Amino acid sequence: MKVGTYFSENSKAAFKNDPPGAWMPNLPDGCIRLSSGYPDPALIPAEEIKAAVARLLDEEHDLPLHYLGSPRVTRLKQQIQKRLAERGVFVSEEQLLITSGACQAIDLIARILLDDQAVVAVESPTYMEALEIFQNYTKQIISIPIDGQGIRTDRLKEMLVERKRNGLALPRFLYTIPTYQNPTGTTTSTERRKHLLELSSEFDFLILEDDAYGELSFDKNPPPIKSFDECGRVLHVGSLSKVVAPGMRIGWIAGDSEFIKASEWFKKDLDHPFSQSTMAVYLENTNFEKRLHLLKDVYRAKCAVLLRAMEQFLPDPVSWYVPAGGYFVWVRIPGVDTSELLPQALAEGVSYVPGKYFFLNQSDGTEFLRLSFSYANEKEIIDGIQRLGRVIAPFLNGLPDPEVNDTNAPTP
Questions:
Q1: Kind and range of the H or E run holding 134
Q2: Tell me: the pLDDT tens digits for 253-309?
Q3: Which helix (H) or strand (E) holds 265?
Q4: CATH number of this structure's domain 8-44+290-396, picked from the four choices 3.40.50.880, 3.90.1150.10, 3.60.21.10, 3.50.50.60
Q5: Helix 46-60 and helix 273-284: axis angle, to 10°?
Q6: Considering the domain 46-284 in this protein, what is its CATH number?
Q7: Start and end of every Aminotransferase class I/classII large domain (predicted)?
Q8: What is the model's pLDDT at position 398?
């Protein structure tokens, strides 16, 4: 039997892309994980979730374990509505869909909006798993560069004007991570957020706002793009993975009720009602503002440790963006292919993610890498950067000095 003959043409086309997770390095034992975009293990509320499970089963017995689950599934939706309202995003029950994490939300939106004729615009660089999802539905993907103020809306407008003038299809939607972006850690300015909405109205496209890191500010959280949306053009995707626990798989889509209804059509019962009910109980018994303050304090301190270590141990002309929140620091090493550097880094006992995986055109990312300060502890961060510095230095020998070395602004 030739198994391949049974696959659909869409599946065959998707299999030509890099497999999911190809960007994840195989880590040797004892390797310091500056590649992992995971929460700090000490911040996962394991005991509190254990208590939530016990309380849920004590109060409801078998009910949460059935297909329809507990009434607390509805309660979770109300809790998320309240959290969104506190950030200026007001949605009804019909305008909110709970999903199995942010990736399912992004996939559902791609499924209802994209086909092989559709165009989608993305930031460059962008979240690699979103790229993987979009490439399963269309090959017509357009990259828009970012800088230290987020997506270049001037370049986006140039692209839109040119395509309209030439009679080419305009994007069905733009995918953006405006707050503490993955991988760069940059945040789109309020002016550009509003400009994005103006462009979406003028050129008739939607905005898929990925807000996975939106509450992890080191200071004050910027307002989501959705909070400015008066026309229903923004599909806001959020998650509790970064602020509670990723294994709970709790995400959502907030948007126009027709888009929610269409997403629900394809989502069917691909739910985790027990996980949702457990999360509802956890949130009922948690001072979430206090928890957010703890997360911000820890990640702010760990980011500061990383940045100080980079200043001390990484040689010139290495440069990076300084984030105001989130999990990541984006690094440029001029003249060095970070994919070729990685095996040596792993041998030295430190990992990172090569920048090429965050670009549609991977050759655009060869000089970049992503570091995470979220998972490793402070001692590991310092040791990891020392090791990385030792690996980088020989690669830079013989390279000409760059004309400009702004440690806050690598050029994507």
A1: helix 128-135
A2: 999 999 999 999 999 887 889 999 999 999 999 999 999 999 999 999 999 999 999
A3: helix 257-267
A4: 3.90.1150.10
A5: 110
A6: 3.40.640.10
A7: 31-382
A8: 54
